[in-house]
Design goal:
Order of helices and strands: HHHHEEEE
Bound molecules: zinc ion
Structural class: alpha+beta
Number of strands: 4
Number of helices: 4
Largest sheet: 2 strands, antiparallel
Shape: extended
Distance between the termini: 59 Å
Number of domains: 2
Helix content: 55-70%
Strand content: 5-15%
Strand order of the largest sheet: 1-2
Amino acid sequence: MRWRERIGNTLARWFYGRNGVDQLNIALIYLMAAVHLAGWLVRSQAAVLALDAIGTVLLAVTVFRLFSRNLTRRRAENAVFVRYIWRPARNRLQQLRDRSHRYVTCPDCGAVCRVPRIKGTIEITCPKCGAKRRVKG
Ligand SMILES: [Zn+2]
């Protein structure tokens, strides 16, 4: 067995029955990186200490979640995070990247309608509530 396979198998055995990496842990790692970068930018010693403390707490929470065996609890936490933060942020990023469509929120029901970006105005029908309205393409 090659050494890379051996390391892979060892890691797989180590993480068996544990939570591992989920969306909340990925976000915590990015947040930790942002806190450390902010620590490099500030000049106040008290602020550096505070940011270090926050970074350490984030690291502790991330490691705890990574190796936790209470999968029910960790999955419930992750589900709440994905529903209220991860998915809306991902959708917003996707909308910002999409240059060929405009995203219009229906004033009646709040549904988001994807409209092709064209010259002039077009009439759209909301797929959720059926309301018609004219929007700029
Ligand atoms: Zn609607």
